[in-house]
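#struct-help
A.M.: can someone run this one for me? Single chain, 147 residues.
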Amino acid sequence: MKVLLLKDVSKLGKAGEIKEVKDGYGMNFLIAKGLAEPATNATINKYKAKQKQLAEMEALDIAKAKQMQESLQNIVLKIPKKTGANKNLFGSLTKDEIASALESSHRLSIDKKSLEIPQIKTLGMFDVVVKLGHGINAELKIEVVSE
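D.P.: on it. Structure tokens below:
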């Protein structure tokens, strides 16, 4: 029996491969568990179309991430914070404050979980790394100013 693997199966093959297996193993294990489908022309064409669609969506996501990267690298985000006597902040600057300031001032929406910030407890300029996915990162410059 020929099957099209939908998921990686150890000691058999990777997803997308067509393998020859015994009928019982194919029907009772691989197909029953959703790891494979019978390798007919219809299922192969359906799988290839789905893979093509996923590749197109990934290319679109990468293009959006690169566009966002260009937008973020041209921004210097000013965030006002309350300070004490020696220009230290009351508390530290948080990821949530950065994300909301970027949303309100530049209308760019980013997930606060994608930010990598150093501990910011003083006034000044800081670089923040924004992970945009697909291995694309952007540097956002932040200037913390006194209120």
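A.M.: thanks! The mean pLDDT is 93.
D.P.: also worth noting: The helical segments are 23-31, 41-73, 95-106.
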